[in-house]
Amino acid sequence: MATETAQPRPQARKPYLLGSIDAFQEVVSTAVILPKEDGVISVSEDRTIRVWLKRDSGQYWPSVFHTMPSTCSCMSFNPETRRLSVGMDTGSICLLFMHFCFLSLECLDEAQLYLHLYVSAAHQGRVSVVLFVLEMEWLLSTGQDKNLTWHCSESGQQLGTYRTMAFVSGLQFDIETRHAFVGDQSGQVTILKLEQDSCSLVTTFKGHTGNVTALCWDPVQRVLFSGSSDHSIIMWDIGGRKGTAIELQGHNDKVQGLCYASHTRQLISCSSDGGIVIWNMDVTRQETPEWLDSDSCQKCEQPFFWNFKQMWDSKKIGFRQHHCRKCGQALCGKCSSKRSTIPLMGFEFEVRVCDVCHESITDEDRAPTATFHDSKHSIVYMHYEPTTGSLLTSGTDKVIKVSMSATWLELGFTPI
């Protein structure tokens, strides 16, 4: 699954900026929106956990400034229980409770953090992902030591561990089936069945040519989305049990985050160049074809440059091999000189197609299925809050932005 040369983004649209926070000394590792309290929680490389509450002026002001023993590498927040799980670069994990103080029924004064659990040396290296599973009372985590572990969130006792083949950079969990989805730097996605004190390997997926950088699981449609440093996104149809894998090509740089809005059937993706793409997943998409192997062009039968025998027999110079992105045939440059978008195959940028396929693609087939936005900063992390339609991004510029796309405004969301 190869990518094409970067193309101009179609349908570029500017998000509606609701607010920004830029009072950081270091890059923000993770941040999430607090919808009920109209606030933001952030953890940073400067070892701090901060809670920001939005005031009547529209600006975010700090309510909590808590310093951790070491650099905060990742975080997850459970809004139902207000538990905050924080992973650190020393391998330790901290579970905290958040409490909000109100001056009145409608006036929030401040927030407070209380330590609930501290798991020392859960990993031998930096914690890359941490997840709290309320239904199981589990604390799942992965680290640079290539281990997936799960601890009891009440006692801190380690319940189980699984050794991965490479450094894990993405983790999702399905409560119904107890399946853990693990993405690593080899480009592989592994599905594990977790039990109270053991786990078993279910299957593995391999579709990316680069590191898996982001995972997103939709338990309703039962599909898994994976993003990669190869700029691509793959939708794995887990529930269909047919092995369907849909490729989405809409980024010019490494995919940094994935969020799925189930109420609108939209996938939101972001990349390190600041690009945000909103994909319409309420359409019937098609799998990209497997690339066929051949020693000569499958249209004009001209030899490719490694086919020495045919080159000698025909007294012709060999050509470079290309592939049509629609039919997958191996072709010479002359027989695949056309370019076209194929949105239902995930190609929102123009890609190489053969002459026959180019003629078969209609204007309706070229209708875009995604909209493109510019966040105006290099994105490190992204969080989507479905109840408000708000999108948070943190960047290498040490700034947090809370935005709402014009697309969501059209769907009826109003700024918070």
From TrEMBL:
<dbReference type="GO" id="GO:0045600">
    <property type="term" value="P:positive regulation of fat cell differentiation"/>
</dbReference>
<dbReference type="GO" id="GO:0005769">
    <property type="term" value="C:early endosome"/>
</dbReference>
<dbReference type="InterPro" id="IPR000306">
    <property type="entry name" value="Znf_FYVE"/>
</dbReference>
<feature type="repeat" description="WD">
    <location>
        <begin position="248"/>
        <end position="282"/>
    </location>
</feature>
<dbReference type="InterPro" id="IPR015943">
    <property type="entry name" value="WD40/YVTN_repeat-like_dom_sf"/>
</dbReference>
<dbReference type="InterPro" id="IPR020472">
    <property type="entry name" value="WD40_PAC1"/>
</dbReference>
<protein>
    <recommendedName>
        <fullName>FYVE-type domain-containing protein</fullName>
    </recommendedName>
</protein>
<dbReference type="InterPro" id="IPR042234">
    <property type="entry name" value="WDFY1/WDFY2"/>
</dbReference>
<feature type="repeat" description="WD">
    <location>
        <begin position="205"/>
        <end position="238"/>
    </location>
</feature>
<keyword id="KW-0853">WD repeat</keyword>
<dbReference type="InterPro" id="IPR011011">
    <property type="entry name" value="Znf_FYVE_PHD"/>
</dbReference>
<dbReference type="Pfam" id="PF00400">
    <property type="entry name" value="WD40"/>
</dbReference>
<keyword id="KW-0967">Endosome</keyword>
<keyword id="KW-0677">Repeat</keyword>
<feature type="domain" description="FYVE-type">
    <location>
        <begin position="291"/>
        <end position="362"/>
    </location>
</feature>
<dbReference type="Pfam" id="PF01363">
    <property type="entry name" value="FYVE"/>
</dbReference>
<dbReference type="InterPro" id="IPR013083">
    <property type="entry name" value="Znf_RING/FYVE/PHD"/>
</dbReference>
<keyword id="KW-0862">Zinc</keyword>
<dbReference type="InterPro" id="IPR036322">
    <property type="entry name" value="WD40_repeat_dom_sf"/>
</dbReference>
<dbReference type="InterPro" id="IPR017455">
    <property type="entry name" value="Znf_FYVE-rel"/>
</dbReference>
<keyword id="KW-0863">Zinc-finger</keyword>
<dbReference type="InterPro" id="IPR019775">
    <property type="entry name" value="WD40_repeat_CS"/>
</dbReference>
<keyword id="KW-0479">Metal-binding</keyword>
<dbReference type="GO" id="GO:0008270">
    <property type="term" value="F:zinc ion binding"/>
</dbReference>
<dbReference type="InterPro" id="IPR001680">
    <property type="entry name" value="WD40_rpt"/>
</dbReference>
